[in-house]
Amino acid sequence: MPPRVVPLIDQRSASLVTPAAAFSPDTRVAASGLLSDTRGRPLRDLRISVTDRCNFRCNYCMPKEVFDKDYAYLPHSALLSFEEITRIAKVFVAHGVQKIRLTGGEPLLRKNIERLIEQLSALRTVEGRPLDLTLTTNGSLLARKARALKAAGLQRVTVSLDGLDDAVFRSMNDVDFPVADVLAGIEAAQEAGLGPIKINMVVKRGTNEHEILPMARRFRGSGIVLRFIEYMDVGATNGWRMNEVLASSEVVKLIHAELPLVQLDPAAPGETAERWGYADASGQHDKAMGEIGVISSVTQAFCGDCNRARLSTEGKLFLCLFAAQGYDLRSLVRAPTSEASDANLASAIAHIWTGRTDRYSELRSAMAPDAGTGGRRVEMSYIGG
């Protein structure tokens, strides 16, 4: 009998909207690598959160007044084991996933993360190619772990860095962590061959927009892709307000005035970043100087070709960064042997994805700027960016 998968409220935020009725597929669907949702969007990218813990307290993600010393993190027994993560990932790959990104919290806090990377790096796409295996980190532990991550099979890293000014950076991470240590981690990742490296800078108006040009100057010509991300309304704990959003168009205009840019084609279908290359004297892209990216998560919806699914550290599947409900895959993985087959898991994932209708950013774009964004949603610190 096909498995019963229940949409559930994410317990990391108990005030999320009430879930829909129990999801119970009535036909078995095998993995074919050709899965698509109700809008024709294929499943190509899986983000896996490996921990809900982080050693930073960035106010746009894990503000200290919420995630304080009394905050109850998930017990270890609730987390998916590395073997369970790899098993689920293997089924997603059979459905067409080509890229896996490990996130957190801060994923390098997960003990023996290299062992998980070794397991995932052994997987192959339906075409027989290695996965695009990457990891997003705040960089605090990268200097000491970069070589081991590379040796385990990790291909590249994305580092979150919201400014170069040490006072600004310490203020934003809210644990007084020095920017020099993150820069040392980035250098270690380059030396280890974890590239091409990307750096994500969340731009919050009134906080760090004056760091845009110093960041652009620092990483231009370095081989590192710097990406600017609009401050997002993810979750409910960061006190998001529209007047704190600096539109990507303003970021591009600011940089272009000093360092001329030329727009580039998307790197791949479903790419979230709009690419801009540094221009030479003739107005053509100077590849030696590299490029930047802007992720317009608020001002320009990119739901139309979103091909990403997200798996929480305790095995809940979310179909959108702004999701209000998830699907409990852990209960299938840990079900009695008769129900815990990979075929059941593959069928459940297929039914969930083919029923996907998510387009939160498009709906938000149609709202008045001061209309608010509705009910509670899953926190970014729980399912990663």
Radius of gyration, in Å, reads 20 Å
**Estimated share of beta-strand residues:** 15-25%
Count of the separate structural domains = 1
Q: In CATH, what is the homologous superfamily?
A: Aldolase class I
The percent of residues in helical segments reads 25-40%
For this structure, the quaternary state is single chain
Q: According to CATH, what is the class?
A: Alpha Beta
Let me know the number of strands: 13
What is the N-to-C succession of helices and strands?
A: EEHEHEHEHHEHEHEEEEEEHHHH
Our measurement of the CA-to-CA distance between the termini, rounded to an integer number of angstroms, reads 36 Å
| Poorly predicted sequence stretches spanning 5 or more consecutive residues | 6-24, 369-374
| Major sheet: arrangement of strands | 1-13-12-11-2-3-4-5-6-7-10-9-8
| Overall pLDDT confidence | 86
The helix/strand class is: alpha/beta
> How can the largest sheet be summarized?
13 strands, mixed
What fold name stands as the CATH topology? Answer: TIM Barrel
Note the main attributes of this structure.
alpha/beta, TIM Barrel, 11 helices, 15% strand, single chain, 385 residues, 13-stranded mixed sheet
What would your notes on this structure say?
This protein is an alpha/beta fold and 385 residues long. The protein has one domain (39-316): TIM Barrel (Alpha-Beta Barrel), CATH 3.20.20.70. It is built from 11 helices and 13 strands. The protein has helices at 82-94, 113-121, 142-152, 166-173, 179-192, 212-219, 248-258, 330-333, 342-354, 360-365, 380-383; strands at residues 7-8, 45-49, 99-103, 132-137, 156-160, 198-203, 225-230, 261-263, 274-278, 291-295, 308-311, 316-318, 326-328. It has a 13-stranded mixed beta sheet. Strand 6, helix 6 (212-219) and strand 7 (225-230) form a beta-alpha-beta unit. The longest helix has 14 residues, at 179-192. The radius of gyration is 20 Å and the shape is globular. The protein starts with 6 loop residues before the first strand and ends with a helix. Residues 6-24 and 369-374 have low confidence and may be disordered.
